[in-house]
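User: Can you help me understand a structure? I only have the sequence.
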Amino acid sequence: MTSTVDVSKEAPKLRHVAILVPDPEASAVFFESAFGMRRVGNARRGIYVSDGVMNVALLRVNPEKGEKVGVFHFGMWVDDLDAADAQVKAAGATYLTGKPESPNSYYEAKYRDPNGIVFDMTHTGWAGAVKEPGTSAVENGTVLSAHN
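Assistant: Let's start by predicting it. Here is the structure, written out as tokens:
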């Protein structure tokens, strides 16, 4: 299988992974202790941690909705949502929900790939994540340096 990629455009960056866990607090402590990650925010149902480049959402699993512990979805940081939307749809993805209401709104547009795996795309990024390593994210007045 061959694909055509426009190398003149900036490639989307993998900058977010959501993991379903039984106890977000215990998982955050583990990520802090094991990997040196920092807490960078609270999610509706969990905690965000980051290494300064990637955002990891530790979300409380909801077995009543059929959820299981493990990777829930991943997220791509894009420059142009409309262009990225067209590109992923042409590649076989299906739009699910979450397009922005205004140009300045925070959002994650959700899609499903041909294998059924859910992914997000955003132009604004995630707490604690940076699009380009070597830059810094600022969270609650704390500068989080990205690793090169």
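Now, to help you interpret it: The domain at 13-133 is CATH 3.10.180.10 (2,3-Dihydroxybiphenyl 1,2-Dioxygenase; domain 1). The longest helix spans residues 24-35. Let me know which part you'd like to focus on.
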